[in-house]
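Supplementary Text 2. Reproducibility record for the structural model of the 593-residue chain.

All settings were left at their defaults, and a single model was retained for analysis rather than an ensemble. We include the record here because the model underlies the residue-level annotations in Supplementary Table 4.
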Amino acid sequence: MVDRTTRLRWRRRFKHSRHRVEDMGVQAEEQLERHLFKRLNKLVSVRRFITAWLLLVVLLIGITVVQIRNLGKYYLAAKPVPGGSITEGIIGSFTNANPLYANSAVDNSVSKLLFASLLKYTEANQLVGDLAESYSVNENANVYTVRLRPDLKWHDGFPLTSADVVFTYGSIQNPDAKSPLYSSWRGITVTAKDALTIEFALPSSLSSFPYSLTTGIVPRHLLSGIPPSQLRSISFNTQNPVGSGPFTWEAIEVTGSTPEDREQRIALAANADYYAGRPKLNKLIIRSFLNEENLKTSFDNQELNAMVGLTTFPSEYNETLEITEFNIPLLSQVMVFFRLSNEILTDVQVRRALTQATDRAKIMTGLGYPVVPSQGPLLESHIGFAKDLTQLAYNPTAAAQLLDAQGWVVGANGIREKNGTPLSFGLFSLDNEEYNRIINDVAEQWRAIGVDAKVSPQSDTELQTAISIHSYDALVYGISVGVDPDVFAYWHSSQASVLAGSRTNLSEYSSVKADDALEAGRTRTDPAIRSVKYRPFVEAWRDDAPAIALYQPRFLYITRGTIHGLNPSSMTTRVERFTNVHNWMIREERQSD
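Retained model, structure tokens:
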């Protein structure tokens, strides 16, 4: 039990402790009042100072972040990465993706992306295997054997075999199918030796035959039940084509309420089963335009990554660093073809005079962009090209004297006449800026020696019709000659006949000497022998002057931003821009080296 004295002592201690706590509270209040609350009032007077310091801190942080990001450029490099899509605009219209019939710029582009071929060109214009793993030829160069890659698939997953190859070329050879490739495949026997091996037996030696194996292969399992006469117009060609190329068909959309603004959009998706691996791009979209103005407008609105079809690079793009102009030489020739069945142009002296009156250097300079000059029926890179057998040089004085000697007299109007017949004929070309400039320059140069060339620019449809029936007098036109010097299709007399199908001998040139040389040259495999065999053809062509070789055209490709993997050099045809398309990339990410 606690006594009274102890209780009093605890009570005194408790009261003492309470007083101490109260004193400490009072002191704390005094300190807060003195050091905090009274000083808060002073913040108002220094708010500008504090605000300035806060802004400075924020600014320093921002500068630090920007500096770190910029310094990243020195240790992080922008590298291309897979993904994304490319949209390419092309002048023209889409009518048929089937490689047996594709003919226009749009058709050929879509077909190239959808359908793989046995062989293809590299970016150095070397012929290599596409669907083919390898190919070989016998000693007589009249039997070619192609071996397919194993495990090839169509876009629908069905196996691709030698049966598809036999079906493709059999369809081309069937006259009811009416393929424009028909004439070049007559007399060739195509046989499947096994599921992966195909044999091509030719009626005679043909050293250039492998270059014929770049046509896309079509699926037998989808088309074999279609009558050949209906192959050109089936829905497969335009609504759901199935190929084995790097991209698969996704959709087509047609927009525009008038013919002037009509546009087609063809969406293609990456083929996951492509033999070379899934393309780096997720999608590739082809948009067709009927005129340059609409194409340019879409490009300016940044709806397109690339443009195809313009003849000149717009000057307003010269100062835009992100826009790139590619001038890619084509293994082709732009020529003035004389239709030799024309009453006036059948005279070789008139043709020689016209050749000597043509200032090719001036024409090329007037184009405003670099081109490679052409000096005869073969390119300088071809086996058989002879520097000492180039076409007649520019000499308007000699040209006038030649016409004088033939009895062509200059009339009061400056145009020559002979026996009441004026030296006058039509000069056809495609109606675009490039060709209009050429035909007007040529007509002006010929008029200087008394020749009346009536220029006649044609729409693409009109010109193709005129070419198909040879309803022109003289024609400025481009032909694709390719890597091999075999130009049989353009200059052999058999190709001028209406029975030749496409009638690719546009001059209707006929020469026994030239025919013999063309036949001999294409049947030899040794380059030195081929060169010797082609010499009489080149000589006959120079002397007969069935055409005037002007220049190798360029392919103008305009891009916005960088397309990684696009490495243009020279090309056989415009669609060869897609040679490496499965490796194209447009997206970039910064990565450490």
